[in-house]
Amino acid sequence: MSAVNTSFLILSSILVLFMTPGLAFFYGGLVSRRNVVNTMLSVFFICGLAIVLWFACGYSLAFSGDLGGVIGNLKAVFFHGVALNHVMDTGITTGVYSLFQMMFAIITPALFIGAVVGRINFRFLVWFIIIWSLFIYYPMVHLVWSADGWLAKLGTLDFAGGTVVHINAGVTALMLSIWLGPRTKRESQHYNLPWVLLGTTILWIGWYGFNAGSALAVNSVALQAVFTTTIAAATSMVAWMIIEVYLKKRVTLVGTCTGTLCGLVGITPAAGYVTLAGAFWIGMIATIVSYVFVEYAKPKLKFDDPLDAFGCHGMSGIWGSIATGLFATHHVNSAVTTDGLFYGGGSHLLMVQIIATIATMVFVCLGVSIVTWVLKQFIPMRVTKKDEYLGLDIAEHGEMVDDNQGPRRDISQHPDEFRGQLSWLKRP
């Protein structure tokens, strides 16, 4: 066992775990005051749920055996028979690799929470994440990151989760927002902008574990991933600011943070495969693609994705996955057997990346639609209009984000005494 590489991957795992509370602050700062607790809890509780699922059957379905190149088997449930101390090629153990992958299983479903805030039934959300993990996320991991996976054998390059994480979560967000329908009352006021900046900062820091850690060793590829991640994020941030200055005559904190995340998302599938120049162009175009979609395409499509989970993670993830086929080069990583289009490799890798991207989108669209339709037969997907007006903090959890909301707390604790005063909530 390599102590250096193992320590590096443990640290990377901790950084990826750190991203989930960071995302909770990012989303919690963006929503209205009435839904802060619900939003942050909806993100954070996944830490516990995803770990239990991964231990119970997730690792087995992702990496144990193979069924048709789509999913593993159940021979390693509860890590039965798994040699955790087995040393892999880079000197890390199977145990620490499974720990690292576990953190990806946490952050991925947390990303699509931004599309459903303020109106989804929490009980439905819990069951959806369980079933989504079993039938969509674990198969995606197997398809792309297992040596037996169909997309892996096709030659798909996904360094740290363009298809598995961001396209998967982004398309899930899109489908859930369509199934849920628009909010009854759309609010543009954010609860806490400093939280948005805090969350963005935590995510950026954690992303180094996400991307550099995917090298699985302390080597030149990990160093390259650190550089490309930094350059893409910075370029994307500046690009968003320039666009805002040119089109809106002002720079916003929310826009600047969103631009930063677009760059981080865009570079994720390519981080260990591209040059620094490639990272620059990936980051810049990620912002352009996401900005155009959020500002111009989304209003015309009329689906309600309040925090732009698809606009950011979906659109930038799609671009990053395809861009890997343009910019990947064996000079950065010997795992690239066919260079990208811009590095003399022809169109082969680009076509592979396009096929993998489309296949991921189709698979997730169908999977989410089936899971949602089945669950709706047993559990209401959406809260009542009354609960939506009141806010899910009170309606779903009986808690408020601010301690100084005394009267509202009294309402949650003694609702019968305030029945008359709350009669207006019955209005549509």
UniProtKB/TrEMBL annotation:
The chain crosses the membrane at residues 6-28, 40-62, 96-117, 124-147, 159-180, 192-210, 222-243, 250-267, 273-294, 306-328, 348-375. It is found in: Cell membrane; Membrane. Residues 8-400 form the Ammonium transporter AmtB-like domain. Its main location: membrane. InterPro entries: Ammonium/urea_transptr (IPR029020), Ammonium_transpt (IPR001905), Ammonium_transpt_CS (IPR018047), NH4_transpt_AmtB-like_dom (IPR024041). It is a multi-pass membrane protein. GO terms for cellular component: plasma membrane. The keyword NADP does not apply. Keywords: Ammonia transport, Membrane, Transmembrane, Transmembrane helix, Transport. GO terms for molecular function: ammonium channel activity. NCBIfam families: amt (TIGR00836). Belongs to the ammonia transporter channel (TC 1.A.11.2) family. PANTHER family: AMMONIUM TRANSPORTER MEP2. This is Ammonium transporter.
